[in-house]
Write a structure and sequence with these properties.
The protein has one domain: Class I glutamine amidotransferase (GATase) domain (Rossmann fold, 3-Layer(aba) Sandwich), CATH 3.40.50. The model has no long low-confidence stretch (mean pLDDT about 95). Helix content is about 25%, strand content about 30%. The chain is built from 5 helices and 13 strands. It starts with a strand and ends with a helix. It is an alpha/beta fold. Helix 1 links the parallel strand 1 and strand 2.
């Protein structure tokens, strides 16, 4: 079953409604104890800042539970926007250490116009399961000022151009990160969420 972590950041109802359209059960996890043997996939949403997200996860005791969950490779995690960023070690946006599940750092986008907001396309470098039925240069909805700029990262799956290229989708074994918002990206975003369910 899929569980979505409700720690105060992210439009939980949008995800719930998308899965409901496919008759897929999505469990909203408002207590860290809800992460149990019935959950084998986690969605970590996020709208806001890096440090705020980390503080919320720690105050609600989700932080260590997510790390422990990730260690079982039969489990899968999908981090979205800030939820993607906090899977990393650090970010220029904050001073705290992230979940450190991926050994990467996020940096401020080198643009005079921030945040990067609106529709932009993704360039697919590698086909993976959550991209099934997603075409090259499909547009998704973005809203962020920090990104994974490591062009040589082994985790890179998709790139997007906003004055410079950044990683818009990554994968590390059972861990996925997407910089855009699938819950705001119409049918193509719904397809990503359906693919995660099927993965």
């Amino acid at each position: 079953m899929i569980g979505i972590i409700n720690y105060g950041l992210g439009n939980i109802n949008a995800y719930y409604n998308i899965y409901k359209e496919y008759d897929i059960n999505l469990k909203i996890l408002s207590n860290y104890k809800d992460i149990n043997s019935n959950i084998d996939k986690l969605i970590l949403p996020g709208i806001g800042s890096f440090d705020n997200a980390i503080n919320l996860l720690k105050s609600q005791k989700f932080f260590d539970e997510i790390i422990n969950f990730s260690l079982n490779e039969k489990n899968k995690i999908l981090g979205v926007c800030v939820g993607m960023q906090i899977l990393s070690t650090t970010s220029q946006e904050g001073n705290l250490q992230g979940l450190d599940i991926i050994k990467e750092s996020f940096h401020k986008l080198p643009s005079k116009i921030l945040p990067h907001i609106g529709w932009n396309s993704v360039n697919i470098n590698k086909e993976i399961d959550i991209l099934n039925n997603i075409n090259e240069n499909t547009f998704f909805y973005f809203l962020h000022s920090y990104a994974l700029l490591n062009k040589n990262s082994d985790l890179k799956i998709c790139e997007t151009m906003y004055e410079t290229k950044f990683i818009s989708v990554f994968q590390k074994k059972n861990i996925y990160g997407i910089q855009f918002h699938p819950e705001k990206s119409h049918s193509q975003g719904s397809q990503i969420l359906l693919n995660f369910y099927k993965s």
